[in-house]
Amino acid sequence: MESLILPDSNIFIGALRAGTDPFTQFVPGLEEREYCTCGIVVMEVCRGVRDPGLLRRIKSTFAVMIYVPTTNQIWERVTQLAWSLDRQGVVLPAPDLIIAACALQAGATVFTHDAHFRSVPGLTVIDALN
After folding, report:
1. Please, are residues 92 and 120 in contact by the beta-carbon 8 Å criterion?
2. What is the CATH superfamily name and number for domain 4-126?
């Protein structure tokens, strides 16, 4: 398993909908891996949180994760991914392309329940933490 993991927003949102703390699932194995995030994941998770106290806690936890910024190089990669995948008949949502490009840039594995990430060339994807 890769040591740097970028959890997709669906991991956090699923835990929140189930009434559990989404960050507790990362505690086992913390000494073996690191977690990163990017702006689109933070936005997708935070936009649905209604409780201001919970929102502050989630934002403070995201703030200590490794942050992959969306640089011009990332946007060029997003554009290339979108163009090449579209030509193959594989149309991914723009937020997922951004997440994939950030993970590729950081050399991170995407932790997600969305199977379409597996269509991104060179991207390592997992659906569970072992």
Report:
1. yes
2. 5'-nuclease (3.40.50.1010)
Question: Which pLDDT tens digit goes with each residue over 42-78?
Answer: 999 999 999 999 999 999 999 989 999 999 999 999 9
Alpha carbons within 13 A on the beta-carbon side of 106: 27
Let me know if 14 is exposed, middle or buried by CB neighbors in 10 A (0-12, 13-18, 19+). middle
Tokens of 121: 């060339």
Please, what is the Cα angle at 107 between 69 and 83, to 5 degrees?
70
**Residue 109 · residue 2 · CB < 8 Å:** yes
Q: Which residue has the tokens 């919970």?
A: 54
Location of structure tokens 């490009």: 101
Confidence of residue 3 (pLDDT cuts 50, 70, 90): confident
Nearest to 11 by CA among 122, 120, 117: 117
Q: What is the pTM of this model?
A: 0.91
Residue with tokens 């994760």: 65
d(CA 19, CA 115): 24
